[in-house]
Amino acid sequence: MASQWFISFAIVCLVRLGCTGRILPLDNQHALDNYYKNALLGLSIEKPDRWYKMTDDELKSIFQAATGPLLSNNNITSDNVIPLFAFSKYQLGIQIGKFNPNINGVVSKLTDEGMKESECDSFISSHKLLEGTQLTTTNISNCAEVIFDGKTFFSQISHLSVNGMNFTQVQYVRSSKHNYFFTFTMDYDDEISKSELDNTMKSLKFSDE
């Protein structure tokens, strides 16, 4: 389980190493039973039915354990990259040795210089930085433009393996006003979970523009 969350969070955090701006305190966020909503950032997303919502303490603990060394080595602090939510198909710790499909979201605050890098280039940078880790990449798609709720995102699909478990990871990134950079990552190993996660991404709403 730790390895799985390490892969998810490590990639999303390293998508943009130009995230050196400080994010305002995210006090207006709410992760209710069936959805996540953040008034400050103007976003909401629905949790798949019967999936598990990670608690704030779990999210912070796993995020710090998985990404702490990677962030500190690149002079990035928790003020620059903040986890927003994480939903998983099974409650943490009850499916030992089995893959747990999941979706998570993080936000970073980019400098004006960091905003100059294209979203597609940032995917290339993140995969290079993860070379030599426990992650094995078997195939990576081209960067593609997609639309959710009338907003433009950029996406990349990767086929990955960790500790003998094969799965697919899809990442969606979006730059918004005030230099916020959002990354949403979904991991799955079967078509049923893929369908549930696709519907979750379709439920994503932004009210910032």
Description:
The termini are far apart. The chain has about 210 residues and is an alpha+beta fold. It is built from four helices and twelve strands, in the order H-E-E-E-E-H-E-E-H-E-E-E-E-E-H-E. It has one domain: Protein Transport Mog1p, Chain A (3-Layer(aba) Sandwich), CATH 3.40.1000. The longest helix is centred in the first third of the chain and has 18 residues, at about 55-75. The mean pLDDT is about 75. Keywords: Signal.
Task: Supply the CATH architecture.
Answer: 3-Layer(aba) Sandwich
Report the sheet with the most strands, covering strand number, pairing sense and barrel closure. Answer: 8 strands, antiparallel
Count of β-strands? 12
Shape type: globular
Q: Determine the CATH superfamily.
A: Mog1/PsbP, alpha/beta/alpha sandwich
Q: Which structural class matches the secondary elements? A: alpha+beta
The structural domain count equals 1
Terminal CA distance reads 37 Å
Brief write-up:
By secondary structure, this protein is α+β, with helices and mostly antiparallel strands. It has helices at residues 2-14, 56-73, 119-129, 191-202; strands at 29-31, 35-38, 43-46, 52-53, 81-88, 102-109, 136-140, 144-148, 151-162, 165-175, 180-188, 205-206.
Throw out a few tags for this protein:
single chain, 209 residues, alpha+beta, 4 helices, globular, signal
